[in-house]
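Many introductory courses stop at the sequence. We go one step further.
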Amino acid sequence: MQTSAGRQDRHQYPAHWEADVVLRDGGTARVRPITVDDADRLVSFYEQVSDESKYYRFFAPYPRLSAKDVHRFTHHDFVDRVGLAATIGGEFIATVRYDRIGADGMPASAPADEAEVAFLVQDAHQGRGVASALLEHIAAVARERGIRRFAAEVLPANNKMIKVFTDAGYTQKRSFEDGVVRLEFDLEPTDRSVAVQRAREQRAEGRSVRRLLAPGSVAVVGVGRAPGGVGRSILGNIRDAGYPGRLHAVNKAFPEDLKEVDGVPAYRSVRDIDGHVDLAVVAVPAEHVPGVVAECGEHGVQGLVVLSAGYAESGPEGRERQRALVRAARAYGMRIIGPNAFGVINTAPDVRLNASLAPEPPRPGRIGLFAQSGAIGIALLSRLHRRGGGVTGVTGVSTFVSAGNRADVSGNDVLQYWYDDPETDVVLMYLESIGNPRKFTRLARRTAAAKPLVVVQGTGAAPQGHAVRATRLPHATVSALLRQAGVIRVDTITELVDAGLLLARQPLPAGPRVAILGNSESLGVLTYDRCLAEGLRPARPVDLTTGATAEDFHRALAAALADGTNDAVVVTAIPAIGEGSPGDAELAEALRSAAAAVPGKPVLVVHVELGGLAEALSAAASTAPWATGRASDTAAAAGTAEPPARTSPPEGTHLIPAYPAAERAVRALSEAVKYGQWQREAADPGKVPDYDDIDEKGAARLIEGLLARGEGLTISADETCELLGKYGIHVRRALSALTPDAAAEAARALGYPVALKATAPHLRHRADLGGVRLDLADEEQLLRSYAELTELFGPPEELRPVVQAMAPRGVDTVVRAVIDPAAGAVLSFGLAGAASQLLGDMAHRLVPVTDREASSLVRSIRTAPLLFGWRGSTPVDTPALEELLLRVSRLVDDHPEVVAVTLEPVVVAPHGVSVLGATVRLAPPPARDDLGPRTLPAY
């Protein structure tokens, strides 16, 4: 976009400032720099602004822009003078600009760090959050150009613009002089400004999905003239579901005299439809989609569901076609589900939309379902739909989204919608890939504080149609981080449905104590064993014998639920033969009535060949769960708005999930127990402690100086010790010993006893290879060990031997921190040696880590008992270890230029910790899109 006329600009056109944003009402706009080519657009935009808005902008009547004005507002150097525009359909709907000023208020250049800022929003687009979005972007641009503070002068009557500034959350000052309100505010993000930004993001993205899932009118584009085909099937599914809004069938091949198809008004083009269209479902070949998008955009359609295939899943040519599709849709302010999507479903009674290829719609219920794959979507809907003799009985769906290639709308967007959707109480997601793990983890943590979130995450390579950020983290690490965020992480779609059924029907257990009762001793023992394997605390099974009646089951279940030593009950049932044996309906009613009397504890049934029992247990008017009293507390602790209260079920209703195998029931219960524990802990997440001896500014100066030497580097041992020392992390000195005399001199300087170590890459941290000699008490032992090492492994130049003072004996551990481009900063901990290297026994937490998270990090590795006195050994100083973890977390969080830290080994003794080895890598900080202005993924 740079032209010859613009070569006077001090910087080239900053293409990285371009971004698509979601506005308050769910529509989209494009933000981009204003250039010299925009003169006509600017004049046209200004002509559509009301006289009142012009007066508020210029403090005087200003009916038109002069040629001088147009030149000034379109010629920028992208440093001291910057203008941004929000556009829809290529036309301006709002502008913002800043001009750098000095202390005297006159135009200036760097190092002046203040700028005047001013907005103008077209009246037709006021109230859509355009100014708030532009403020986020112009503030980010200003920070990039060294500007730290904005000043704005606003007329007192311009309440809307004053509110834009005051609501942004920045630290600000306000004064009134000469009839003008002057606002000054720092541009450094604050906790409040970030919270405001994320709350706006949630509302905007949630509403953009709501427009797709609850449209007032729908057009199906690509309806065949003959029965059959995708378009005709979609049209029939929408009509048969009882959709109450206006429905239109579109096909450019329709005869001109055709008025209806299957009783639905027919049109040759979306442009021919009278009235607005909220949603277009596109089922035409890929080569015809661009024309359809243009028609929809010009007609004001709000969103698209694109079922058409032939995009990124088909290779490089299709990937370019997909990028063009997204760019075209966003230019008109539309969002897209797809392409290559299976469709969407909304079972709300006032919507009843089945714009999908599902052979039969799901029953209404409280489960939100997201699947990227159409095939998996069909399987999930089928399992949730199945009755009686099927797997687990029946439950219902609130909304279903199959995103296909998720070129635009992704799982993150749908999570934003489900977070405050009062019709959804449980979220189930099948994710073949996670495009933005950092944002997904943030949204998942907030959602999980309000309602359960169960996820199956693909383990292989991402499908071709998915744009996925590269991550260096192993799949197991990503899974651990999701669990830390409250995600119920399962491995199969069977486990996904099993957990979803329990969470949708039953309250969360208060702990891991499980009562087991039933009419089969062997099935009870099997359930008991599975509880132990899943880390639960089962009581001995109560055998009611095969002759148990429905009343026996009722009494036993009532007693188990009333027992304060139980947190959940598993009922096992096998077919009983005999005159007094209970029927399915009788047994189901006995269990339901007993459970209804004590509604605070979950009840599960393991049934064998009792299809009728599963159906009887599921026979109820609703699948709505009810509150356990924890969700609102947890949401408040997480710093989020309180979610809508969970709906209570009809009086007397208590839905009990039934499972055909003990291991499936117990696995679902185990996940519910862990989720309940996470919610209780999330209500008090702890704090990031302050340490008086941390020298943050000194560390920043040191890092700046080191980075001046190169883009990315592993700093020397002395530099590492100096940097870590700024954060109170002290590394034991290791002195080089390239000769025996140097080794002896180093030992005398450090004091005996000492350790002699080979630090060559193939021997480093490999005590098992014999490259380490410990507890050398005098020079004779030191020189003898030196000779042994050089004889075994080669000359000192290859060994790189060092001498180090002995540390107190303890447990060797390893602490690592890394900034992953996709997931963000991650802190990891494990025992040094085989436990972490061979068995992968490492635990992980997202940075910054709180004191409670540091404590749980130490205790969450499988070998943690070695730290706490296993088999009579002396417990080590875990509080000191936790403090070390917190200090490393602070270092990485305060200085994103620190992209990798490894402390190995860290010897944890009964009193204190000793860091014996450390490496630090520095690099220019990676982009933090989670802290920058709101944007949609770039295409």
